[in-house]
Amino acid sequence: MADTNALVAKLEALGLGEKPVEHAAVENVEQWAEALAGASGVPAAYTLTKTLIFKPKQPKSEPVAPVLVVIKDDTVADAKAIGRELGFKELRLAGEEILADVFQTSRGSVSPFALAKVPEEQIGNVRVVLDKALLSDGAGTIAFHPLDSTRTVFVDGACLQSFVKSVDGLKHVTEIDFVALAAAAPAVGEKAAKPAKPAAAVPAKAEEVTGSAKQGIEASKEKDFATWYRQVILRSEMLDNYSVSGCYILRPTSYFVWQEIQNFLDAGIRAMGVRNCYFPMFVPEEELNREKDHIEGFAPEVAWVTKAGQSELAMPLAIRPTSETVMYPYYAKWIQSYRDLPLRLNQWNSVVRWEFKNPQPFLRTREFLWQEGHCAYMTKDEAWSEVLDILTLYRRVYEELLAVPVIEGVKSEKEKFAGGDATTTVEGFIPATGRGIQGATSHYLGQNFAKMFGVVVEDPEATGPERPKLHVHQTSWGLSTRTIGVMVMTHSDDKGLVLPPRVAETQVIIVPSGLNSKHTAEDRQRTLDACLAVEARLRRVGVRASSDLRDNYTPGYKFNHWELRGVPLRLEIGPRDLEKQSVLSVRRDTFEKAALPLDGLEGVVELLLHKIQDDLLIRARATMHERVKMVLRWDDFVPALNSKCMAQIPWCEREECEEQIKTRSTRDAQSDEPEDEKEPSMGAKSLCLPMKQPQNPPIVAGETKCIQCGHDAKRYALFGRSY
Amino acid sequence: MADTNALVAKLEALGLGEKPVEHAAVENVEQWAEALAGASGVPAAYTLTKTLIFKPKQPKSEPVAPVLVVIKDDTVADAKAIGRELGFKELRLAGEEILADVFQTSRGSVSPFALAKVPEEQIGNVRVVLDKALLSDGAGTIAFHPLDSTRTVFVDGACLQSFVKSVDGLKHVTEIDFVALAAAAPAVGEKAAKPAKPAAAVPAKAEEVTGSAKQGIEASKEKDFATWYRQVILRSEMLDNYSVSGCYILRPTSYFVWQEIQNFLDAGIRAMGVRNCYFPMFVPEEELNREKDHIEGFAPEVAWVTKAGQSELAMPLAIRPTSETVMYPYYAKWIQSYRDLPLRLNQWNSVVRWEFKNPQPFLRTREFLWQEGHCAYMTKDEAWSEVLDILTLYRRVYEELLAVPVIEGVKSEKEKFAGGDATTTVEGFIPATGRGIQGATSHYLGQNFAKMFGVVVEDPEATGPERPKLHVHQTSWGLSTRTIGVMVMTHSDDKGLVLPPRVAETQVIIVPSGLNSKHTAEDRQRTLDACLAVEARLRRVGVRASSDLRDNYTPGYKFNHWELRGVPLRLEIGPRDLEKQSVLSVRRDTFEKAALPLDGLEGVVELLLHKIQDDLLIRARATMHERVKMVLRWDDFVPALNSKCMAQIPWCEREECEEQIKTRSTRDAQSDEPEDEKEPSMGAKSLCLPMKQPQNPPIVAGETKCIQCGHDAKRYALFGRSY
């Protein structure tokens, strides 16, 4: 048995002697990725790995043969398939006992290097399985914990192989191509698909048609939301992690959603008379500091450029966290007369807010894409009218494009935009966590910024030589890529992403199916041709259809592949369908199946896509409706939160009371409930004062009291835990 | 007479004692703006001023009454109008004598503070005119040279007023609203318009219809191109200067052009199968440094983020100068098999290259907008085929949208993209300066980056367990907002911007005209209604039409206003036009006029817009064609450059020879010609090896010699001075 020093020596001998990167202890692959992203000395690109230890079902008489599997973190270790490869009947994850006794380690710290610690008398029984994908040159650098979960070493595939070879007494090493393994498996799925007669027009359950190849999501949305969310967005290829912590790559699937949002919103604001422009991303320090309240809100999160090439800059430049202070000095210059009003500009850009809180893909990232509109008006009424028009557009983005219901409201004083007079908001809600989320905001800035930057005009109604100066009334409003995260959280399920048809890059995936060894090459060709013909017909009417004719994957594999990626509708076409002049459709959202006649298919598919879009919103709206709880006494407040609801309460609207609600709900929740690690009980904050106020019971001035403090209630407010 | 010390004391007393900002001596307002943008201690926003000294035409007997005018830098000081206001017959710019004798100063150093130096016996004769726009609160901070052109002080309007009041003995101070002055003037323009009978279908000369209100461009495109360009882009409101040097604000007029380019190009590349995505703007230092040649090309220009909030970053982050090294580590990860090829991604973003050379709006800016495509293929042929397809799209952007002709070619070894194998280019040409300009480039990167980042797949054609690894073949290609600058330089004229109709936010401006005091309120209303009706009809067929019904400006003023802003077509509608059921059209490019019948107007206007678009390209192409000189001996080379041409020469394609051509053409030019300050004679570099090679005379292998060095010529190359 090698002790730690010997192991280190061995690693050194293999060229692994570089100091491992140190970081906080991590408990799962997501935490690990985060920790590395924040650490220094980490290579630009690397593949995370996981090391799993299985125990096969064996006759008691045989010595235990632990199976150590080293695999890419996003590859599914199909225990059955591995067992088959190694000739074992059944593999199960090994318990702590085997980890401790055989590998001198514990869960969370398992790595291939644990092999170096296996006692001499046991190493001969150990089976090692290496993922071929890690060994190919293309794999690049791979990351392991060498000893425990607070350190990471980076090696390449060849290193891993040499290390494994260097372990004395190790006899059984197998390299497995897990991709091929998964591809081979769906034969089972094929079989499983049979009972669901393709011709049946009656809706059938999803499980019947999905292959069993376990690509896809392992975590459960209900049980482990955080892991589930990561898996959905990474594995559906919406997003990839990036080597700078808190920054993410928007892959084509998610960027397509963003472009659809852009097209809709850009047309909407242009139709209102807003014009697009582009201001530089850099803000000189002193400009940023002009508006005091505003800068207090943003300063801690500003990223600073201090150097260009080899030269220090004379004045540090901020990267815009938002553009009020970038743009308004020029508004002061451009607005010389009331005739220059309104000035209505928008820009599509990216902003940087160096959040030190946990980043959350789409929802809270250090760089994100958005639009920011900035308008100046003569009067408050005009400005307010725009604030509300924009809010309507934002609601429509959520509801009509993303099928996500939102609640329109006004933010409390505490939650409003730093430096503005009032903030209106569309608030979303994630049922799986019971947390509210700010969807997009439209601010009435009042005259605050105008005073700060001197945006004034002469009063057109006054006469005489010395007309009084009037400060303009301003608005600003923004909607960001956060929308995409809210959409994913709302609709997606344990099979992966669910995309509303309006924003799906591929709306219909066509998969040839039902072909087997009895079919001739001609049958096969006829089926593939039929797929392409259907694709062409759909494309002609503007449906974004695509055929998956890959010959190295089974239909079952493809079903999973496209379900994971959220394609709203699947059409299966096989020889028997063609005989009947029909295709089999399967909805991604409900897995409902229907035989659709080829004749007039275009119209039916279009209708079906509209139906899916509508149904997604209807279902999400019903859920949200259930989760807005009318709470008329404090005792019901925390229980409402704990049942993953938002609480609608008569409220006094005092900032002090809002603070108290936060503190009190945190405390109550802690005493009521056992601490849940994944979803720590958190206090509630005000989400908004809904524009549609409940009427039953109505707020009676001077009579209805705030449920927290007993002061007079002014309006109903929506409170909840939130992102 | 106050000496310098006394002046400083006076300024201090007025609260102007702050240390002035120091900078290099400047000779004109453009240089001044640049100098300030690069200096520290400069306020976020300020208005540049100019101080002009005029001398009125007076009877010799009277004492000289110099007129000192302080005015916004972009306001035209109409000498005639100022004279009228002050009761002088004629004003002319004062000569150096008056500057020296009366104000103790010299050209380039004139400021209001020169008043403090006027001798006691003369101050009583001086007239001071202050621009009201500088005194309004809205003006904000205004910038002056206090004593000479190497220093700048920033004051507000009130300060300026107190200073002027404080000048002992000064008697005549007048505040003039120059905007109103300009607005009042065009009555003259109206008169001038009369001879050009609105009903005449015969084209007439421009000058006849333009008002005389001298808003607009003062510099001549031919005589002072640099100043002309600045004036055109600033005054047409394409762009504004920004408080960070080398960064500019894209105002709606130019951003509209960019969005039209985006729409066209985005549709084109998507149709080719390229998908959009978004990578973060930050690049960790070590990632940037992976490709050696590449980083050598970019390192001196990289902007570094070193701080976030109050914290120093552990690892500095570059802001992407281009995304090869940002993206390719992920290509290595995503491309696991030849089946993942091709991978074709594009992103629309902004990049930062901290150029230390003189910035040039649109052409060379520290932040600019572009798209960058990055694709990976199995084979060189596929990659090359895309490189050329993209180049075709780029040519179409220039030719079909911007009406700018370009020459397709391949860059020389010296000029190709750092780290790539070959660069193809569309080269533009600015006739007014005789300089070539790189329009957009499409690179074949070969396998260089693939080797660096390990982007490999297994050879699909090989068999057996150990398939050889193949590095992918890559392309990258980009087109930026530089396009807009090339378009402006190509078409615009001494009246301002000329926009091709396809990219003009307003394609048709409708101006009511021909109304005078003899017309009734009803006539007026009927005319305005007719304008709106025409606007509505044009909009219905997709023409971007707009009516200028402002009641505080004369038609002449409006003509100038929209000519300056490049609107391709003006329609004038007056009572007499309506009687004849027609409108008068005036083209911006040629000032050609025609009466268009109201009946069927939409179709005629559409045709006219197409004609304008086509004519712009045809004219620009003819000019370019003239300026490509076939040069078959060295002695003709520099003369060709000096006559603002590009030289097409038989060339050996050796890097050494390219260096020699640069040196030799610089030297020859210097000895041949007197140094021209505005356009220093510069050496020629290779612009491209044109894809369409001249055939007459053909290059005969082994026979045709390079005109510079006498080695065998391989191809014709285009050489020229360039941006």
From TrEMBL, chains A, B:
GO terms for biological process: prolyl-tRNA aminoacylation. It holds the Pfam family tRNA-synt_2b. The keyword Aminoacyl-tRNA synthetase applies. Its EC number is 6.1.1.15. Keywords: Aminoacyl-tRNA synthetase, ATP-binding, Ligase, Nucleotide-binding, Protein biosynthesis. Gene3D superfamilies: Anticodon-binding domain (3.40.50.800), Bira Bifunctional Protein, Domain 2 (3.30.930.10), C-terminal domain of ProRS (3.30.110.30), YbaK/aminoacyl-tRNA synthetase-associated domain (3.90.960.10). The keyword Lyase does not apply. One of its GO terms (cellular component) is aminoacyl-tRNA synthetase multienzyme complex. It comes from the Eukaryota. Residues 662-696 are annotated as: Disordered. Residues 228-500 form the Aminoacyl-transfer RNA synthetases class-II family profile domain. It catalyses: tRNA(Pro) + L-proline + ATP = L-prolyl-tRNA(Pro) + AMP + diphosphate. PROSITE patterns: AA_TRNA_LIGASE_II. GO terms for molecular function: aminoacyl-tRNA deacylase activity; ATP binding; proline-tRNA ligase activity. NCBIfam families: proS_fam_I. Belongs to the class-II aminoacyl-tRNA synthetase family. This is proline--tRNA ligase. The lineage of its organism: Eukaryota, Fungi, Fungi incertae sedis, Zoopagomycota, Kickxellomycotina.
